[in-house]
Design the sequence.
């Protein structure tokens, strides 16, 4: 075996570890992925018929306020000046999201000032003032009042979870942002944009190093290759970014996830919805939102004859589905604590990333966490002989 380090999973966490290990620590790194492409869920590809760049695992918008992460990612790609904005279609009328003064005034057919709008929402939220909401429905009403909650949040959340919000724990939401200005920028971060030549070009550049050996279609748990679990065990340090419950053969039970079914369609029109993302918050529409990919890159000279859209249907994941968002029930949290104990006892293996820690991570968080792992665990091990645990 030539590798000094084996990285399981080529998502942004694994790629960051591999890139730093090769460039900063001068190590030979093998990075394996069971999929046939690198990049994990941030992977994109050009749709065959139209050439429009499609995000295969759902929309990925890069944003961060972390200076270190921003400097780091700019080594591999420039970013466009894309600013994410979302709209929502409620009862055949389109409103700006997140809920802002524009949404409120359109919804109530009014011209409230910021102070008037704030007073109105406070009054409506007062319906459940002083109570301790036990479910998501009551919590939503207490946060923003019944009218806005029922129009924009209730059924959208119900569809996301395939569960009536009355049966969901209040803890799923801490706050529902309402802006008392007309600002409808989706993210508040200092930096935002999309990689100029697309995600896959960025991700491939991270792995483009003579000391990084990328092996695709290679599952860590399958036998018969150089970097299988049994081949590397005890031989070489491993950074594992696959599902933590899978690593321990589900010994403490399955952790639960939500998944999304993505339905892609090419339509013979130049522009279907005039925006990259349209939410569908009503109960009678089965999907949660529609993406239209051409709007992520208005500067590109895409065909005018067709457009690519993707409908998102959310549901609980079963074995074999793509795990997307941790459900994180109290039972899951108990299991996770047990898996963490097991992980701590696993010599020479570090667990990281979204699946390895059972935590939803935005891209910038995955990259930031990977940089910390290199600083705090890998560097001391490879330069000072500290053990890996
Ligand atoms: P990631 O899941 O990307 O990669 C893990 C890799 O490990 C996969 O490629 C998998 O195949 C591989 N693997 C697992 N088990 C293996 C095994 N046994 N053997 C070999 N390989 C194995 N973030 C953001 O900043 N803005 C956004 O808009 C979005 N949008 C978004 C939408 C959706 C639907 C999701 C699910 C996620 C986002 N994200 C996001 C989050 C973003 O995708 C996230 O930050 C990265 O997935 C984290 O990277 P990881 O490397 O941790 O996991």
Sequence:
């Amino acid at each position: 075996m030539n590798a000094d380090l084996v990285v399981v999973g080529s998502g942004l966490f694994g790629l960051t570890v591999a890139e730093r290990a090769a460039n900063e620590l001068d190590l030979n790194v093998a990075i394996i992925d069971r999929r046939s492409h690198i990049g994990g869920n941030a992977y994109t590809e050009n749709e065959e018929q139209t050439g429009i760049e499609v995000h295969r695992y759902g929309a990925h918008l890069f944003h961060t306020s972390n200076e270190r992460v921003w400097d780091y990612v700019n080594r591999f790609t420039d970013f466009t000046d894309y600013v994410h904005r979302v709209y929502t279609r409620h009862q055949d009328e389109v409103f700006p999201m997140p809920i802002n003064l524009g949404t409120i005034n359109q919804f109530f057919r009014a011209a409230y000032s910021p102070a008037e709008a704030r007073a109105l929402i406070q009054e409506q939220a007062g319906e459940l003032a002083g109570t301790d909401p036990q479910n998501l429905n009551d919590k939503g009403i207490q946060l923003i009042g019944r009218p806005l909650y029922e129009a924009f949040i209730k059924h959208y959340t119900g569809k996301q979870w395939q569960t009536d919000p009355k049966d969901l724990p209040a803890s799923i939401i801490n706050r529902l942002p309402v802006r008392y200005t007309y600002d409808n920028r989706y993210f508040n971060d200092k930096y935002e944009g999309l990689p100029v030549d697309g995600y896959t070009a960025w991700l491939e550049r991270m792995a483009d190093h003579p000391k990084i050996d990328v092996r695709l279609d290679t599952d860590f748990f399958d036998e018969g290759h150089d970097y299988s679990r049994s081949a590397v065990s005890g031989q070489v340090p491993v950074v594992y970014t696959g599902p933590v419950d899978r690593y321990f053969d589900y010994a403490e039970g399955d952790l639960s996830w939500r998944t999304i079914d993505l339905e892609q369609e090419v339509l013979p029109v130049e522009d279907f919805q005039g925006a990259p993302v349209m939410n569908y918050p009503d109960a009678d529409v089965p999907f949660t939102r529609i993406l239209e990919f051409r709007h992520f890159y208005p500067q590109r000279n895409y065909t005018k004859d067709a457009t690519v859209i993707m409908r998102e249907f959310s549901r609980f994941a079963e074995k074999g589905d793509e795990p997307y968002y941790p459900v994180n029930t109290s039972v899951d949290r108990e299991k996770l604590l047990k898996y963490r104990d097991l992980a701590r006892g696993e010599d020479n293996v570090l667990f990281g990333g979204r699946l390895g820690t059972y935590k939803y991570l935005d891209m910038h968080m995955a990259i930031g966490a990977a940089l910390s792992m290199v600083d705090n665990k890998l560097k001391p091990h490879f330069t000072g002989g500290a053990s890996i645990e």
